[in-house]
Amino acid sequence: MTFEFDHLFILTDIGASEANRLSSFGLVEGSSRIHRGQGTTNRCFFFHNAMLELLWIHDPEEAQSEPINQTRLWERSTNRNNGACPFGICLRSTKDSDDTIAFSSWAYRPPYLPETISIAVATNSDVLTEPMLFQIPFGKRPDRYSAENSKPLKHGVVCAKLLV
Predict the structure, then answer these.
(1) Residue whose C-alpha is closest to residue 44's, from 147, 153, 163, 164
(2) How many other CB atoms are found less than 10 A from the CB of residue 138?
(3) Would you say residue 15 has pLDDT above 80?
(4) How far apart are CA 72 and CA 120, in angstroms?
(5) Of 27, 49, 54, 131, which is the most exposed, with the fewest CB atoms less than 10 Å away?
(6) CA-CA distance, 155 to 141, in Å (whole number)?
(7) Residue among 82, 112, 106 nearest 11 (CA)
């Protein structure tokens, strides 16, 4: 296998108040990020092998610009209560990768990454009723981040709280 699950994003309203509910369950929130030029911001929860990203549009103009518009993030976000799927599934290449992409894709070069790096976005990205699928060549498990980039991985989740 040349890829593995990296993270799940869920499109939310501005500020992702859902993160507060996750924190009340005992999850520990990690760092957030503004995706400059893409028009999105996030709140993240890190686990040993993956991440949960709550994502929202903070700049509609950037999100609707070229080439960002091709991702259809704007449409997914603004129509998520009307049938558009708010989820994105990200795979990452493994250390043994031969640069194989898990699906038919197009190269997305967001402004916040160096020009030499692209994200492989599935060619069905314009099918808004399905999750957005993409693969990154630079991802790694959060438990393998360097000390200076480490994230909180221990959570105080109590199962009884999840059932309420």
Answers:
(1) 153
(2) 11
(3) yes
(4) 14
(5) 49
(6) 17
(7) 82
